[in-house]
Every structure is written in C-alpha cells, then in structure tokens.
Amino acid sequence: MNWFVEPRSAVSRRASRAVIALLVACVPCAAVWAADPAPATVAQAAVPDTLQQRIKACTTCHGVHGEGSPGSGVFPRLAGKPAAYLAQQLAYFQDGLRKYAPMEYTVRQLSPAYMEEIAAYFSAQEAPYHASPVPSVSAAVMERGKQLVERGDSTRGIPSCVSCHGERLTGVEPAIPGLAGLSYDYVSAQIGSWRTHTRAAKSPDCMAIVATRLRDSDITAVAAWLGGLPPPTDMHAQPADPQKHTLPGWCVAAAGATP
Amino acid sequence: MKRWLAGLLVVVVVAAALVAWLFFRSPRERPPQSAATRVSAATLRDPALIARGQYLATVGDCAACHTRKGGVRYAGGRSLATPFGNVPAPNITPDPDTGLGRWSFEDFWRALHLGKGRHGELLYPVFSYTSFTKVTPDDALAIFAYLQSLAPVRQTSEAPSLRFPYSVRRSLAAWRALYFKPGVYQADPAQSAQWNRGAYLVQGLGHCNECHATRDALGGLSPDHTLTGGQIPEQNWYAPDLSARPGGGLEGWSTRDIVDLLKTGQSAKGAAFGPMADVVRKSTQHMTDTDLEAIATYLQSLPARPAAEAAVSHVSFDRKKGAELYADRCADCHGVDGRGVAGIYPPLDGNTSVNEPTGINAIRTVLLGGFAPVTAGNPRPYSMPPYAQELNDEEVATVVSYIRQSWSNKASAVRPSEVSTYRHTPID
C-alpha cells in the first residue's frame, strides 16, 4: 500500500528539475527564479491563461512537454502518444480500471472534455527521447526480448509487440500507445499490473491476455529490450491501417472465450 | 453495609437488563399504511414530480454513495468505510430482485424517515437517516418517483462486513436510542422563508452535518455541536467548521463567497478539494441560485464560536527551512504573502483548511496536489502539483508547519510521523 514513491535523493531531484528546465528552453527565467524567489508577487499579477499553467499537477511529474521523468522511470512519457489513448487512460483512472492513487486523485475532478483537451496537448508535444537505465541482463535474455518484440512466440500464443504497437513501436492511431522510449521499470511494472489487476482496459482487454501468457522471465526480457532501444527519429504514431481490424483476432477470440 | 451492596447489585442488574433490552429487543412491526404515504402508480409517473425528484436526489447527492466507481448511477456497490467495518451502498434502481423494484413509497419513507428497511430491519446510520429524517413527505415522494423512473439495473448488493457487536443489527437499537430522533424539519416562524429553506437543505437532504461535525467513539453526533467541524473517519480529511461569525471556520466569508464555492468550486476565500470537491461537482453546482443563497443565509446565521486557544506547540520545526521550501515550491502561486490569486490559487493566510485543528488537510493537499473540481462555472480549473514524490516526510511537515504559523495563521505545527501516516491513506 505504499502509494507514493519516496524521493530517491535531493541530488537526482535537482538533476531532473534541471533537465526539465533545459528542455523547456527557459534557462533565463529559470535562472532568475532560482536566484531570487521574492518577485513571486510580481509574477502573481498575471497568471498565464494557458493550459500549460493549468495542468501543473500533470507536468510536475510527466514534464512540461510530457517527456516523462528520466531519473525515476515511474512517470511515463506522454508526448506524442495518440490523444484518444491518453484520454481513455485518464477515464480508466477515474473508473477504477487503472489503480494508482496519485493518478486517481489527480484525475478525479476532471470532465471528459477537459481530459480530452489535456490528452490532445500531450499528444501534440514533440520532445526528444532520452535513454533510461536498463539493468544488465545476459545476451540470451536480450535475444528473447528481441524475439518477443519482433516476432512473438507462437508456441505460447504470444503475439509480437510490433503487430499492434506499430513497426517502429511508436503506436498506431487512434488508441494504441507507443512503446519506444518507455523505461525498463515502467514496462515491467505495467505488464505486472495487468496480472495483479491494478491495470485493465474495457473488454476485450488484449494486454491482460498477453500478460498472463508471458512468463516472469519474458517480462524482464521484453522490458529490457524495449528499454534499451535507441529512440526512433520519427516518434509519431502510425496512421491506422484500414486493412486491419481494430483489434486482432486472437484477442477478440480469447476475450470471447473467457467473458 | 450489606444494604448498600444490595442496592448496588440492584442498580447493576437493572442497568444490564436495560442494555440487553436495548441491544436485543425486536424491531417494531411495520406500522399500518397511513394516508400520507399511500400513493398511486399514476402519481409516481408524473413527469413534473420525477423532474423535481431528480433535482432533490442531486441535492441529496444520493448517487455519490449509491454508485460504484465506473458503475451505473444508483446501482450501488460503493463500499463505505467506517471505523466499525465496511457497508456497501445498495442498488436503488427499480430492479425487482436486487433494487427497489418491489418497494412501495411507504417502504421508502420508512427508510428515509425512520432508518428502517423494507422488512423492519434497522439500517446502519452510514445511510444518513439522522439527517434525512428531516425531509418532508412531499420531497421524499418526488425522490422516490425519480428513483422508480430509472432504468432497472440488476446488480446484487453486498452484505455489510462489520465487526461484532456492530454486525448485530439489533445493536443499532441502543445506538438509535442515544443518537437518533426522527422528525420532519419544523420551520422556525421567527426566521425568513429563505433562512428556513437553507436550514432545511443543510440539516436534511444536504446532510452537511454528517461530515462537518465530530463523531464520538460510537460514531454518534452530539446535538450540541452541529456544523462545528470534524475529522471524517477513515477518509482522513477534516471537514471544517461552517460558522461565518467570529471564531468560525468560515469567518469573513460573505454570502457571495459561500455561493461561489458551492456553485463553481472556487471562491475568493478558498477552493473545494478532497471530498468537498466531489460534493461540489456532483451535487451543489447543480443547485439553483435561490437554494444556494438560502444555504449561505442559513450558514451566515450560525453562532460565533469560542475563540480557539492559542496553539501550545509541543512540536518544533526549522522555520528557516520552512521559509525556503515555501519560497521554492509554494510562493509562485500562493504568493510570498500567502494571499493567493483570487479565483485561481486559494489564499493560505486565514484559510480554514490550512488552520483546521488537525493539520490533515494541509498535509494531504501538499502530498496530493490536484485540480479544483470541474464545474460549469470553472470548466478548465487550474491545479496544484503533488509533492509526495518530491518532498520527504520531514520536508512536508516543515513547510506545512511554516504555513500554519505564518501571516495571521496561528495553528499548531505538525510532525513528520503524521505526514507518514497520511501519505499512506488510501484514495477511495
């Protein structure tokens, strides 16, 4: 029941704050603010009437441009993910399908319209990817990760990641998220959360099916391979393929078998 | 000496018999149907009555408890945590097997007014019949007509999971003897119609006192301390005192401020957060201006409160560190003077939720941050960042203590151990 992550160290916190400040390209104002906190009353006179100002509850962890927090791996990248996916996930936190207390509290008071606006903002952001730490695993584990991501494992009924999340793993419109740029910690925690029923989607919940078919060692392998991928140059989600069904047959069939 | 002992024995035996009787007496049989509660099926289908009932059900915020997270409205399933165990709110859609489909208005009236179920069983007071008893039969009928007009949802209500002896329903007889006095609201002829409307809404359907007062060890509320503020059990928020007079939690609040907060979630004096943000979003923002002004008029009339004793602080904190944290994390929005930005960022100086006796609200707000509720009057609210992931227990305690003892604030300092406790309070 430890809902909140205790800060790791003041140093890493300061470092991540500095990175965010640089990414915002707001070095001069950050410097002034850091040097002298007193002029707050001056800044108060005009609170910017911008979405960015309104959603500080989001950006404090996910970054002003949804770049995610590089140090912790807990706060995922939002930038460039399909807007419909982001809005859907916010609704899932409201409806109790996804369970993470800080997110549940943050989204609790929002309307669908406001959540869509916030989702569209992060979806439209272009922020550089940055590498996150990957635990050292053996070459065999990395090879297994690569196999699962690119080809899946038909013997266990596991589809490849790319079959749904796009060849470049940057997601597919309208609502399949990208996996590139996610940290090892985040990917393994999320797959785990499908198993412990703290993350779910409305039926058919394809990832819940995949999560039960993966072995523990598979989760490590997939997360390590994804976490170590070099970020793609074009980070936009692929357009939906009109030839493809919205949901893969294996998922619909499996979900139908176990309603 | 012997006579003295015998006397004592008699007293003890009589007391034990009385307690046993209170615990285990059978609930009374169903009372005969009265003219006031006999209604025809045609009456219940009257669209005007149903519409009025919908409004009143919103005022009473029935859906807040009788709806599971992500579930169908009024189909029940939300488990309400109490210090005595959990009580799931039942399905009140008109499904015949799992909801109120077989209920007559008489049954509904007995539940709302007397706190008794369809078979005469005593209801747990987490269903706030201690307040709802004040609702008039006319209003109850409208609410019943509305609930019966809903699409029936088949969803079985779970049984309560309470500890002994609370699990014995008949034990409620003793609780009711102590804390429950049935009776429809009686207008005070010395007061205006507006005041009476406000009092009726606050004391009855609005059931404000169920949170805004301190409960004793048995979960009862004292009639001598109404709307004087209290910690909400299990939820761990503090619902402040609601008097707008000297010493009151809303001291200095104008009628406008009260109406603004209930209508938009924001006011010049403070913003709704925690459970009150839910109440504003789901209930009060939908109330008419006339009703909100009536509520404000009634609250304005609540008596002054005895001046709080100056906090004798046994807790010390590093004031310099607190000032640094405040300048670094808080002053940008709330101002170095703690006055906030009207309508956007609430003031901290003189803010009742900052200064409430426990410090819970300030601690949890620093940890959780969050948005003011989305309302028609404030569709894109500003927000506060959470600091749980950035500040450790000592830092949160230091900055909260600093805020509670700056400007005109003179509340007690808080301990890091308290921050640690509330860091782990589950979000319902």
From TrEMBL, chain A:
Signal peptide start and end residues: 1-34
InterPro entries per UniProt: Cyt_c-like_dom, Cyt_c-like_dom_sf, Cytochrome_c4-like, Cytochrome_c_Oxidase_Subunit
Domain of life: Bacteria
All residue ranges annotated as the Cytochrome c domain in the record: 43-126, 140-230
Keyword Iron set for record: yes
Keyword Metal-binding belongs to the record: yes
Keywords, ordered alphabetically: Heme, Iron, Metal-binding, Signal
UniProt xrefs under Pfam families: Cytochrom_C
UniProt-recorded name of the protein: C-type cytochrome
Taxonomic lineage from the root: Bacteria, Pseudomonadati, Pseudomonadota, Gammaproteobacteria, Lysobacterales
Automatic annotation (TrEMBL), chain B:
Domain Cytochrome c: 48-151, 193-303, 317-407
Protein name (Swiss-Prot/TrEMBL): Cytochrome c
UniProt keyword list: Cell membrane, Heme, Iron, Membrane, Metal-binding, Repeat, Signal
Organism of this sequence: Rhodanobacter caeni
Subcellular location field: Cell membrane
PANTHER family, per the entry: ALCOHOL DEHYDROGENASE CYTOCHROME C SUBUNIT, BLL4482 PROTEIN-RELATED
Listed Gene3D superfamilies: Cytochrome c-like domain (1.10.760.10)
InterPro entries (UniProt xref): Cyt_c-like_dom (IPR009056), Cyt_c-like_dom_sf (IPR036909), Cytochrome_c-type_DH (IPR051459), Membr-bd_ADH_cyt_c (IPR014353)
Tagged with keyword Transmembrane: no
